[in-house]
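Long-time lurker, first post. I've been practising inverse folding by hand and with some scripts of my own, and I keep getting stuck on stretches where the structure tokens seem ambiguous. Below is the full token string for one chain I'm working on. Before anyone asks, I'm not after the true native sequence, just a reasonable design that respects the backbone. If someone could post their per-position residues I'd love to compare against what I wrote down in my notebook.
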């Protein structure tokens, strides 16, 4: 257990000292501020947003942004945490440590998922503070609690859908293959709508749940709601199996 805790600490230190951490942190703060300023009319035009111009509509807009941008941002986090070991040629050194391969991969997965969850939470809290500062209508604890439930569900879906990126980074031994995979999933989600099978494309579910395609699309079947978690489970098993059985030389 101490060895696993040490691995978690090492991964956290590597992340904290990287530019990725600070860039992602700044993005999570600035993005909701900019959206809030535009949403309230302080900056730009409100006409670019559909729906109600109040706290409920603003939190919904944050969910929409997260459902689409999170696939790219969170995917990049998983890609960097796993792909950098191959790009920096440090994977052999890691496997020489007195910790199982499962433990090494699990530590990376936990740190990546934790960072994504923290970034999503920071984005939501910053959004709530921005909504209060710009005096959006409907600002209340009840509306915030109600909006957070749906936002948290979307965040969890996006994190689960980003787990397979770690598998792609491991099998591709670098950054480019997983980033290509992220772009492929976004294209698949877009084409799913054109083909009428969007409810069965895992990477499109967060967008549907957030209301990006209209309120009529938010009421999804149970199969559609489960798909992101199944996809995350497959990515988890694939990543752990690759680190356990693949030849890393």
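-- Answer (accepted) --
I ran through it position by position. Result:
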């Amino acid at each position: 257990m101490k060895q696993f805790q040490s691995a978690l600490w090492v991964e956290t230190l590597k992340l904290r000292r990287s530019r990725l951490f600070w860039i992602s942190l700044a993005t999570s703060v600035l993005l909701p501020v900019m959206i809030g300023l535009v949403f309230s009319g302080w900056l730009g035009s409100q006409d670019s947003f559909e729906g109600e111009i109040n706290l409920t509509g603003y939190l919904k807009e944050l969910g929409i942004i997260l459902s689409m941008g999170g696939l790219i941002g969170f995917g990049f986090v998983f890609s960097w945490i796993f792909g950098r070991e191959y790009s920096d040629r440090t994977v052999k050194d890691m496997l020489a440590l007195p910790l199982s391969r499962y433990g090494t991969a699990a530590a990376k997965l936990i740190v990546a998922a934790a960072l994504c969850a923290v970034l999503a939470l920071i984005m939501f809290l910053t959004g709530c503070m921005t909504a209060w500062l710009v005096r959006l209508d409907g600002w209340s604890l009840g509306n915030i609690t109600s909006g957070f439930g749906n936002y948290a569900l979307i965040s969890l879906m996006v994190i689960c859908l980003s787990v397979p990126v770690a598998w792609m980074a491991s099998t591709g031994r670098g950054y480019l293959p997983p980033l290509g995979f992220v772009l492929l999933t976004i294209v698949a989600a877009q084409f799913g709508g054109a083909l009428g099978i969007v409810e069965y494309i895992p990477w499109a579910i967060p967008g549907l749940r957030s209301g990006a395609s209209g309120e009529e699309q938010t009421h999804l079947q149970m199969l559609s709601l489960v798909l992101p978690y199944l996809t995350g489970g497959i990515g988890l098993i694939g990543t752990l199996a690759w680190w356990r059985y693949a030849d890393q030389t």
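A couple of notes from the structure itself: Residues 118 and 196 are 34 Å apart (CA to CA). The mean pLDDT is 85. Happy to go over any region you disagree with.
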